[in-house]
Amino acid sequence: MKTILETDRDFICDIQAPCFQMLLPEEAEVVRASKTQVLFRKDDNLTKQGAFASYVLFIIDGFAKQYLEGDGIKNYNLRIIKPGEFVGLSAVFSENTFNYSSVALTDCHVFLVEKEAIAKVVKQNGMFAFNIIKRYCEQNTNLLNTVRNLMYKQMNGRMADTLLYLDSLKNEKAEIFQLLSRKDLADFAGISTESTVKLLKMFEKDGLIILNEKDIRIIKQSALFEISRRG
Amino acid sequence: MKTILETDRDFICDIQAPCFQMLLPEEAEVVRASKTQVLFRKDDNLTKQGAFASYVLFIIDGFAKQYLEGDGIKNYNLRIIKPGEFVGLSAVFSENTFNYSSVALTDCHVFLVEKEAIAKVVKQNGMFAFNIIKRYCEQNTNLLNTVRNLMYKQMNGRMADTLLYLDSLKNEKAEIFQLLSRKDLADFAGISTESTVKLLKMFEKDGLIILNEKDIRIIKQSALFEISRRG
DNA sequence: ACTTAAATCAATAAAAAACTTGTCCTGTAT
DNA sequence: ATACAGGACAAGTTTTTTATTGATTTAAGT
């Protein structure tokens, strides 16, 4: 019986996600018919760079990080994936494989929706399409900023960016820094772990931030903005 | 240029795998056209229980473990996946989702082949089909044995089984035990980690095995067989 | 050539996981 | 009711992973 109850809750769950509110009943049915729900545990891969992508992931609950895999050790962290966000949207309309990896930072309840279903609903429902496009657009902007950072900024600026970005997530997840190692921060900023440690100490000494175990509290946001701006 | 060379090597690689030797050139082309190669790093998930399965994985190189996810902490390890083996075959003909998880114990070079391609070639090539069926058959046998073990054996018998199974893999991977924790052994035998530790010590005291760090050497195979038989 | 940014290397230190061991509790089968 | 298999808990130990720090290259920019 427990199973039935849970299935019931799933049902309610996908109806509740704001993103799917705008679907007509029959459209919601298309999505529902070709979706499955999976519990990814902490450290499970949600997507693997290069693997076939026949579906899109929609995060109900939990946090993950999205990253690029390089040659061997050098990963680059792209973003934190939050509840209500999609992973693998790029696979729906063009790519046949995931072009990045992602891994659960906490247990994640996730909907997997087959990409044909998403494509179909997008074609039928302009508002839903608009919403999807908006997400693509935001991701584009973020990627452009990322490229800009990598091209034009150096250590200090990049780390300032990283800290400001992660700090902005505290609204949704106050303990966000607890989920990340120094190597994670390094991979966000695109610098070495050792440099990350040194930089953080420096920022602390200059009174810009306070380090408390893994947590980082930002004291002088304006100064970090300035460092970020200067590059 | 490096990329081109590697692609070249991939090309040779899939031709070389014995399993694909029996394909006619045009059949091999079908497979090749809908395959991609991925490097799964140690601890990456190859498959995630419950996720959509649009492809089959073929292990070129490396070792992985396949397991069932339960409620929370209690996983059950089904088998070690070796080079030359498929993962997710069950998805080709019936299931639409993976019904187990698997994770890389070492870095794994893996081919992903879209399941339509496998299905198509199976229909065309009897010998290939025969080979696939044989694999299903072996998996069935193993699963039946697993059920038998769980139903009818207790701790000692299960652990003896586990040790004999893993020891048999030493031909292909002498350091197999180095890749596994006590919890892994426990999850193979379906008992608690603590009981595993105690049992291993007991077996050692009785001169059945020798524990050396993580490695386990079997001294009295016949005795273990007897324990396994008695249950 | 000289300066500077930042990676790499090496050596600890600290924190987290994994492993061990003993004791106790629980449920099933006698 | 009793015995026993085996899990659960607690406490201690060991091993592995992360974090930190300083010293030493590397490499690009001026």
Describe what this molecule looks like in 3D.
Two copies of one chain form a homodimer. With about 230 residues, chain A is of the alpha+beta class. Chain A is about 50% helix and about 20% strand. Chain A has ten helices and ten strands. In chain A, the strands form three sheets. A four-stranded antiparallel β-sheet of chain A has the order 1-8-3-6. In chain A, α7 (about 155-170) packs across α8 (about 180-190). The radius of gyration of chain A is 19 Å and the shape is elongated. The interface between A and B is medium-sized, with 21 and 21 residues. The structure holds a DNA duplex (30 and 30 nucleotides).
Q: How would you classify the quaternary structure? A: homodimer
Estimate what percentage of residues of chain A fall within beta strands.
15-25%
Count of distinct strands of chain A: 10
State the helicity of chain A in percent bands. 40-55%
The parts of chain A where pLDDT drops under 50 for at least 5 residues are 1-12
Biggest sheet overview of chain A: 4 strands, antiparallel
Question: How would you sum up the global shape of chain A?
Answer: elongated
- Compute the CA-based radius of gyration of chain A: 19 Å
- Please count the helical segments of chain A: 10
Terminal CA distance of chain A: 58 Å
Global mean pLDDT of chain A: 88
Q: Name the helix and strand elements of chain A from N-terminus to C-terminus, one letter apiece.
A: HHHEEEEEEHEEHHHHHEEH
Largest interface: A-B, 21 and 21 residues
Placed side by side, the strands forming the largest sheet of chain A appear as 1-8-3-6
